[in-house]
Amino acid sequence: MDLTKTISAVAASVAALGGSYTLADKFGWLDKPILNWAPEHFEISDGSAGGEFKVIVARQKLRDDCEVTNFKIEIKDSDFVVHPAVPSIATFSGPATPTVDKFGYKFTLSPEVQKKIAAGEATLMAHIKYKCPEREVVVNYPNHKNLKFNITRGKA
After folding, report:
1. How far is residue 46's CA from residue 49's CA, in Å, rounded to a whole number?
2. What count of other Cβ atoms lies within 10 Å of the Cβ of residue 107?
3. What pLDDT score does 24 carry?
4. Residue 80 and residue 121 in contact, taking contact as beta carbons nearer than 8 Å
5. Which residues pair with 9 in a beta bridge?
6. Are the C-beta atoms of residues 149 and 122 closer than 8 Å to each other?
7. CB of 43 closer than 8 Å to CB of 55
8. Pairing of strands 47-48, 120-131
9. What is the per-residue pLDDT across 14-60, written as a single tens digit (0 to 9) for each?
10. What is the mean pLDDT of the chain?
11. Euclidean distance between CA atoms 83 and 88, whole angstroms
12. Helix/strand/coil (H, E, C) string of the chain?
C-alpha cells in the first residue's frame, strides 16, 4: 500500500465533502424554513387609492431563532407596474407554533403613488428580511389568488 496515494485519496475525499457541503449551503439545500404561509387565510380589502387597505395574513412559524429586520410591501397594479406601499407595522413577531397564526395590518399609498397607480386588480407583495444564525434570509409572500384586491379611483 502506497502511503502517499492513501493520504492523497483521503485529502481528496475530505475536499470533495467540504465542497459538496459548501455547494449545498449556497443553494439553500440545508436551510431550515422559517415559516410556512397559509395563503388560504389571507384577506385584503378592496378600496380607493387614497384610502386605507386592511390585510390579514397567516403563517405557521417554524423557528424562533430568526429576527425580522425589515418588512417592505409593494403593490403590482393592473398595468403590472410595481409601487411601494406604506404598512402600519414595521416588523412583527410571535413564537414558533404548530398551528397557523393570523395577524393583520393596514397599508396606505403615498400621495405620489396614488396619482400614478392604475385602477383595477392589484397584487400585494411583501419582502421580509430575517437575521438568522446561519445568514440573512428574505421571505416573500407566496403567489396566491388571495393576495389580489381591487383599487378604485376617488375619495376614500
Report:
1. 9
2. 19
3. 46
4. no
5. none
6. yes
7. yes
8. unpaired
9. 666 666 545 445 555 557 999 999 999 999 999 999 999 999 999 99
10. 88
11. 16
12. CCHHHHHHHHHHHHHHHHHHHHHHHHCCCCCCCCEEECHHHCEECCEECCCCEEEEEEEEECCCCCEEEEEEEEEECCCCCEEECEECCCCCCCCCCCCCEEEEEEEECCHHHHHHCCCEEEEEEEEEEEECCCCEEEEECCCCHHHEEEEECCCC
CB 40 within 8 A of CB 100: no
Do the Cβ atoms of 146 and 42 come closer than 8 Å?
A: yes
Whether 59 and 97 have beta carbons less than 8 Å apart is answered as no
pLDDT for residue 26: 55
Cα–Cα dist 90/19, whole Å: 39
Averaged pLDDT, 73-87: 98
CA 48 to chain centre: 25
Phi, psi of 80 (to 5 degrees): 70, 20
The C-alpha cell at 74 is: 409593494
